[in-house]
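hi! just following up on the protien thing from before. the input was this:
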Amino acid sequence: MLYSLVSYLDKNFDLPGTGLFEYISFRAGAAVIVSLTISLFFGKSLINYLKKKQVKESIRDLGLEGQKAKEGTPTMGGLIILAAILIPVLLFAKLNNIYILLIIFTTVWLGVIGFVDDYIKVFKHEKKGLAARFKLIGQIVLGIVVGTTLFFSESVVIREKVPSKDIVVSEFQDSDEIEMAPIVRFAKQSVKSTKTTIPFFKNNELDYAVLLKPLGKNAHKYAFLIYIPIVILIITAVSNGANLTDGIDGLATGTSAIIGATLGVLAWVSGNIIFADYLNIMYLPDTGELTIYMSAFVGACIGFLWYNTYPAQVFMGDTGSLALGGVIAVFAIMIRKELLIPILCGIFLVENLSVVMQVSWFKYTRKKYGEGRRIFKMSPLHHHYQLSGYAEPKIVQRFFIVGLMLAVLTIITLKIR
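and the predicted 3d structure came back as:
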């Protein structure tokens, strides 16, 4: 909104300073500042309101140290995060950008599902909240919308590199050596494609249509049969991973901030033809605008962390955790870096796997030996460390360190091939 107004003023009245809004870096910086301001100041007011309305977390007795002290802590604090993301994006982003519209839809959709889940827990006093099948249906619907939009929309394109007719000649070469390889540059025309990035490979692009190679020329036409299910799987896995990680104070919030900052960098270089050319990665027109969204995302997480660090003054609840995970998944898919998720979102992945392994092993051993056995003292993994005697702040800080290492590894995959 503000971007459109300032652009109008710049175009028609040439007001000093309005040209700054054309720079993504300026609008991203402004989004961070506004997001932090909203989460810090609005956050305190919302926490007081939640206390007044008795919107408190009901803690299940898991036998963990310090667990009872958390009884009565306000929940549904994810509303702070959602407001701190959406308001700056509506102000500073180009709202006619397909990627921005899709990520806003993702934020609102999963925020509503999470809110309903928290509402049922708090006001209906049903500890399980929204039935798991309804959450899953909501995630599947989101996956279908995202996958269909990205596959069929004419605005979602890439620029491929093609050999140019220009010839590179070194001043140290003889005239007999003129037949050099042509320069490889980005094509002038954008094309529809289902290509994505494969980490650690030199020619690091995978086209999902290859999986339908037996269909011959129709492979690209029917690639959505592969692409949309993959999108659904990624969104469901990452969203649930973030939800499981939200078990101790500040863990999901801080981890999401680290992941978000990394994705913001990847969006910026992918949407800039100069950086994309230098790094030899796919150039994705219009994705640079997503940097503004992710700047607001990181600002919202850091601002919320002010109140969510140990001992937490507020919990985000499913209102926040489902949205954070879903946004990360959709964002990675849009900038065609979804195959980096196992590295970048390693914390979410391990938390997810710890639950799957624990449940699977328990069921298997109960069937085979007559009694269930466990791999971990408790799952998700962070609870295992709690029962092992580690203090919450130490677990969170060490998970942050691992998250930072994974983020750095993700960034350097741009050059390590």
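The CA atoms of residues 107 and 327 lie 6 Å apart.
The radius of gyration is 24 Å.
cheers
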